[in-house]
Amino acid sequence: MPISSILSPTATELARHVADGLHRTPKALSSMYFYDDAGSRLFQQIMDLPEYYPTRAEFAIFREHGAAIAAALSPAGGGDFALVELGAGDGAKTKLLLRELLAAGTPFTYAPVDISAGAMTGLVAALKQELPALNVAPVVEDYATALTQLRTRPGSKAVLFLGSNIGNFGPAERLDFLRQLAAPLAPADRLLIGFDLQKDPRRIRAAYDDAQGVTAAFNLNLLTRLNRELGADFDLAHWQHYTDYNPLNGAVRSFLVSTRAQQVRVEALDETFDFAAWEVIHTENSYKFTLPQIEALAAEAGLRVVEYFTDAATDFADVVLAAR
């Protein structure tokens, strides 16, 4: 029986991804599938961890430079525009920017995009209570669909991609993604992208392997999702989280490690996969950047750096970009 005849469209896409990823050498699954409702809740916890500096650093940028960022994203000639945020999550940092725009009397519509319906429901409810004057047009979609819709959205726009999510793409995927973001931009449109900057390698590694084990639970939740949605039988007692950081290329890599030789059945695929003891599934990359690397990447993608904002420790940069 074909996969598409027994699964929802979302589950069908996930099943095809798993079939492809578990046949690779080494095996790999995309971090985009971390963010079911449980994964989104776990990531909210990660952002509050003492080891996880990126969220605090980006908050500091928005608190210190919020008015300047709002001005940099608003159309120079005034007028209504759409503020589109890819991967909105709980919108905590973005609310600082939204308040600046509302205080300035800037006419705009906030269009948060998130793959998690649960996260979006919570965000919209919070915005209605905290910022009742805000015009919100939520979109529950993946990035690919949102980018397609972005191409057809009329009028001026500013696109947000915060939280160092750009680092989750490998070099080729990153360039392709940025070119997709650049394609629909008119000269007056803007992008605001968060980049985690290179720093003490020990601090970086600790941010992805916290002492409380929340990041481990976040990684392992991917297997729980496969069990629930695809009828897999991963035994989480025989899997563990592992991460490393390579300061030569700025890459944090996260893995799920099979602690024994085992077989895993995936009913939706009608297939059983063999895992050797200590074999890994590569689940995530998180690249760290330098400012010269960001400028070179932007140029290659057909973008230019308009302005960048950093926290006092230069741990993080929010970079305003425009089409060249």
UniProtKB/TrEMBL annotation:
Pfam families: Methyltransf_33
Superkingdom of this protein's organism: Bacteria
Any one GO biological process: methylation
Alphabetized UniProt keyword annotations: Methyltransferase, Transferase
Entry GO MF terms: L-histidine N(alpha)-methyltransferase activity
Primary enzyme class: transferase
Domain Histidine-specific methyltransferase SAM-dependent: start-end pairs: 15-321
EC number: 2.1.1.44
Gene3D superfamilies reported in the protein's UniProt record: Vaccinia Virus protein VP39 (3.40.50.150)
Annotated InterPro entries: EgtD, EgtD_Methyltrsf_superfamily, MeTrfase_dom, MeTrfase_EgtD-like, SAM-dependent_MTases_sf
NCBIfam families for the chain: egtD_ergothio
PANTHER family in alphabetical order: ERGOTHIONEINE BIOSYNTHESIS PROTEIN 1
Designated name of the protein: L-histidine N(Alpha)-methyltransferase
Organism from which the protein derives: Hymenobacter segetis
Phylogenetic classification of the source organism: Bacteria, Pseudomonadati, Bacteroidota, Cytophagia, Cytophagales
